[in-house]
Design goal:
Blueprint lengths: L13 H34 L5 H7 L15 H7 L18 E7 L12 E7 L5 E6 L5 H16 L5 E4 L8 H10 L2 E4 L9 H21 L6 H12 L12 H8 L16 E6 L10 E9 L6 E5 L4 E5 L2 E8 L12 H4 L8 E4 L2 E4 L28 H4 L3 H6 L59 H5 L20 H9 L9 H5 L2 H16 L3 E4 L10 E9 L5 E10 L20 H14 L22 E3 L13 E4 L9 H14 L7
Parallel strand pairs: 1-4, 4-5
Antiparallel strand pairs: 1-2, 2-3, 6-7, 6-10, 7-8, 8-9, 11-12, 13-17, 14-15, 16-17
Helix pairs in contact: 6-7
Length: about 675
Amino acid sequence: MCSGLYLLKSEIPLRQTQNRSYVSSKGQSALNFHVNKDNEVLLWHYHLGHPNFMYVERLFPSFFSNKSSQSFKCEICQLSKHVRSSYPTISYKPSHPFAMIHSDVWGPSQVHNITGTRWFVSFVDDHTRLTWLFLMKEKSEISQIFQNFHAMIQTQFQTKIQILKTDNTKEYFNSSLNTYCLNQGIIHISSCVNTPQQNGVAERKNRHLLEVARSLMLSTHMPKQFWGEVVLTTTYLINRMPSRVLNFRTPSQVLLQAFPHTKLLSSLDPKVFGCSLFVHIHYRGKLDPTSLKCIFIGYSPHQKGYKCYFPVFKKVYTSMDVTFFEHQAYYPKSDLQGATMREYQNWDIQSDHVINSGDNQQSLVQSHLSPYTTPPASIQSVPTPPASVQSPDQIHPSPKQITNHELLTYSRRKKLGKEIEHTIPLAHDQDLEPSPDSAPIYLGMETSNSENTASVIDDSNIPIALRKGVKSCTSHPISKFVSYEKLSPTYHAFVSAIDSVQIPKSIEEALKDSGWRKAMSDEISALNKNRTWEISELPPGKKPVGCKWLFTIKHKADGSIERLKARLVAKGFTQSYGIDYQETFAPVAKLNTIRVLLSLAANQDWPLHQLDIKNAFLNGDFEEEVYMEIPPGLETSSNVNRVCRLKKSLYGLKQSSRAWFDRFTKTVAQYGYSQC
């Protein structure tokens, strides 16, 4: 220690120490030089608006003499430009069947299936790419469905599932499924949150299923409530179609190579989904139809037969005794009338009435079996009342009979236990011809033995046509008070001629008649003259409004036809608020206001003029951007895939009344009138 300082003994020579000090100072200066360069690069990166450092290197190559542009990182760029990672395509790697199962859930569907389901879960084998699909009413059924599926694999193929690969849906992580996988030694692999790419096999399979399902439904115009049967049929077809992943072998062939003795796969010939077919009836009467017209909805997984849906009873039949009409869809589509798919999607198919007779269920097919086909009049399996009860002429009297005979009138039907106005239906084993001495049997009518006749009959299950049955005559027939004989000759001619011309129910019927064709042509000419629309392309994101024709007949006072009228109306029920219409309110004059005006005119001797504007709604101007489909019957090759952009209002649109009132208000305001 010397003068308060400690002296350290160093064995390093002074020259070597000096050299090290020189080297250290040189390295420090070099480090400072690189730090300054990095700061300069970052500074220019901020100056130029955070471009990629590759472009900064192009501008200032001297800053990157000893450093790559990829080594620079900027937190601001990560916060403002961060993108998702790319996922490379993984090639198919065959292993052995059921080593890995891919699974995914689809749903919920906005429309319930005919069985009440809204979801489906798919299981795809990684090796064979064979697909199993199960419909579900609730997503919580996944655990039990997978356990049943695994038990089937163990029983049918004597193997176990090793890996279950799913997405991050919470239903795959319930306690029962996790416990089952742990007990069975199954490894459950899931994708990250919001990363469906990691479950690509199942996701692409679901997309393939839905693409084929949409094609099947659109080709035969099937309603949406059959979506579940469509995806089951799609799974059946895809399992038997060649796959590019499998070198254009089918999944069924790959499975049969590994398990040649399996009987799990059925071999039914494919048919057109949604076509009409006739199913043989095994239990029927001797004079009843031998088949039912049904809809083909798929292939049974547990029976060797085709699944057929009978919409009248809403029942599914599985049978091989069927005859297919593959070129005839059960739900046809009238393109000419402009009918769209949504008009068929929400049909509630009417159920015909069913009468229990003995052990068999006898059906009364009173109307069409499909929406557009009507069965022969002889198809009727319900016993009819005796011929002596009432003839068809009595049920539907002609005008001459109405004039010359007493009219049959309706009498109010009393409650159960009192008077009931229908006749007693005869049983099958009763003779249909009554004896000459027998009289018609009317329940509730006073006869000689009416007191001994039971009046308590439960008719809740009897069709209304039979429940009303024969109408009893009254002691005060309407012919005594209302009769054609008391009409004036002019009005009598009007009543007689009012039904001489039938109003067409569809545009196909109207186009067959020259008079209706002229009425349609006049309507289109008036619309074109008024410049109601212009033909244009449909912009992206816009949805056109449908339209249809309405027909009516204008008569003169003598009953003769004044003119045939056809009117084109828009389907305003397809409009969406905020998109193609805003406000719809339009003020209407109150009746009290009209009475006050008439009273003032009478007291002040004011002249009154009545004004009727023809096709008033067609004069309203549109503020919204509304597009309409090409009117039915006007489709040409030049306007294919084009629409009408409406410039004026049209009957049927929600804002038509408001548009007309705005136009009327502006017009009268120009003549000095003011609105109160």
